[in-house]
Amino acid sequence: MKKTITLFAGLFVLATGIYLSAADHNEAPAVMGLGTDLADLFAYESPNNSNNMVLAATVSGLLSPNATATASFDEDMMIEFNIDNNGDNIEDLVVQCTFENNKVQMYGPYAPAAPGTSSTIDATEGMIEADITPYGTNAIVVSDGGISLFAGPRDDPFFFDLNQFGDILGGTATSFNNPGDDSLKGTNVLAIVAELPKSLLGSGESINLWVETKRKQ
Amino acid sequence: MNYSNRLKNLTLIFLASISLGLVACSDDEGEMPEVPATYVMEDQMARPAINTVFVTTGNKDNFNQTVPSQMGANFASAFESRLLALNAGYTTNALGHDAATFSGVLATDVLNVSLNGTTTFFDGTNVLTGRTLADDVISVELLLIFGGPDGTANPGLTDDHVDANDKAFLSTFPYMATPW
Description:
heterodimer; A: disordered N terminus; B: mainly alpha; 2 domains; 2 strands
């Protein structure tokens, strides 16, 4: 019993500020409510082609259907997938996505001019462009040179009984419910999805991957 | 960014634009050289809910501004405190990680992705080799935080019992379900 009390006393301290956060949605004050607030990152082998990898990121989480109809990618934002090939957690390759005039532009993968918190686009590298899929229309997909690209609103693929977790941390519950209740049920995100040959990401057995949002200065 | 930093940046941008203007004025051709735009980091993530759960309230922006190669050095010990606050009885987890090892792994927020094998957050065999849309990532993280060495500790906390998405994923690109 004492162990239980210690556990929940500890959890109570952590309760502040977790209710509206999720995978990475709304997690930090400076990006809260901004178009650059990342929600999630996915990376998996294509279910349709074992030579391909799917890279996907979501931003602007927790959109109601009504809010989704008017939501748009921040035009000053870059979504940058960072790929480390040699295990030092410094990016060797980047895939950079920008959003202009209702279109998405994807550059790379290529080696960045310099790693770190500032990026530039090398416009001499190849670029793929696709229309951003408007809410309520079929997915617009552009495929070019073995790369497929999509950007637009989607159902948020993340699922979690966040409210019950908040109650546990807040001390008003001691366990999850069974079945639980998906706190992200019925909410949407803005998503970018790219499918590309694994060979473009590296020749080793694995990569380290992370995603950054960056703002045009 | 706080106010004084923002002011400093604005001042720098103002000075930079003056000097650019001078360069342009002295150019007889009158052509502005194309300067590629600079993009500066505002948010970052790899594994789900790391900043949400493990970074203390006052440090969340700082974590988002730290490059992954510096995260371990800057955050591993704070992550360990947080882990032990979440689960004061933590010994090891199903990966065999003691608190320091697990905190070190968590603090460097990158996602390892296999280029030649199964890609999954956890499928019963493979661990942290990628992340698919259907992976029940939160239950994996809860199990590693609360489940103890064999996953049986704190049974009420190791699974949120939300095991799948609220809408079926697509079998073809772009795979994510249409919006509500």
